[in-house]
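Worked problem 6 (solution included).
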Amino acid sequence: MSAPPPTGAAPATLDEALQRLAAREHELQALQGELDETNRGVLALYAELDVQADELRRATELKSRFLAYMSHEFRTPIGAIRSIARLLADRVDGPLTDEQARQVRFIQETAAEFNDMVDDLLDLARVEAGRVEISPGWFELVDLFSALRGMFKPILTNPNVVLVFDEPQGVPQLFSDDRKLAQILRNFISNALKFTARGEVRVSACREDDMQVRFSVSDTGIGIDPAYHGAIFQDFVQVDSPIQKRLRGSGLGLSLSKRLAELLGGTVSLDSRLGEGSTFHVILPLRLPVPGGSEGETA
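Solution. The predicted structure is:
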């Protein structure tokens, strides 16, 4: 027969088990404490993020309200300046000397630039406030290009630059907001004319695929350094160049174009190399979906 276990062996084993159990319980309590502390930290972080998000929303709303208010306030004096300059240019109060005529033209050009800046600021305020209304309808690109051609004809003052509108090929009627599309293309064309001293600015449209159309505005201007490509469509960004320093602008035209394109379900992009000209693109769906409604019948 085997010998009985030594006296006191079982109690020693039980004591060890109890000690290990107590140590594990202590570890679990410590872990639970750390977890509770982490949870409190996470909750505090979420609360702080909520506060910051609210502050950001309020700041954005205040900025939009300020831009809208100032834009409206600027319109009255700008309108007065342009009206007086027009009266002077028309010689209503008598003839002008050559120098006076030159100064009046300078006033008109500066006031027109100021007016464009105010329009850009007002548009930015509307976009950020979500107050831009999209009014889609059926239209032909031929009509849109014809309207843009007539709009830019009076301001093509550089005889060394021609503005060309290619005949749209294979592009059917579009269902979109033609006024918003025209605003995008106007910004692209104005920008191209501003930075093109010689050559041409060409506007074209073609099918991207069965569902989309690509609009392109190409120029033979100064081009844009690739270092600026990632930021060119951001608010208030302007390319650092000798021409840019001589020309005024809000730096909002391309940013607004990007936002308007997104509202129309599209995207914008840029192909450019310094000294080799630029091509700005906007790709839009042929048919802009209308939430809760139908696109209607084609004309």
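Discussion: The first helix runs from residue 9 to 89.
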